From TrEMBL:
It is a multi-pass membrane protein. It comes from Ogataea philodendri. Coiled coil: none annotated. Its main location: membrane. This is ER membrane protein complex subunit 5. Belongs to the membrane magnesium transporter (TC 1.A.67) family. The keyword Cytoplasm does not apply. Keywords: Membrane, Signal, Transmembrane, Transmembrane helix. It holds the Pfam family MMgT. It comes from the Eukaryota. It is found in: Endomembrane system. The keyword Signal applies.
Amino acid sequence: MFSSVCFVLAVVLFANSAYSSYQFHQLGNALPLDVQLEAGAACLLALIGGLLAVPRASIKHDIVSGHAVPGYRQEPLKYIYMDKATSELEAQGVGLFEELINRPGYLDLDKKRKEFAKWAKQ
């Protein structure tokens, strides 16, 4: 609730500072300090509203076992078990460093030429 109020107030302040800066720009004057402070306050309110809108994670995991500690409830995000994630990728034939290994800078061109020459002779 409070985060929504912060967002609405931030939008109103942004709109007012944008309109004020447009008017001062039309007159050719420099932007006054109060308009700059108003835009800064709007940024700060938007940041506070965004931080308050994020649900608080109440998940605690044991570092050694990776299991959730009893007494804490699960929130929208789930824990990523790297051993399962890497085994699923390796089962698909993709290693952890596949992108690095197959970059053009890591290709052995002499080996590729020999393989192509051997293939061409067949």
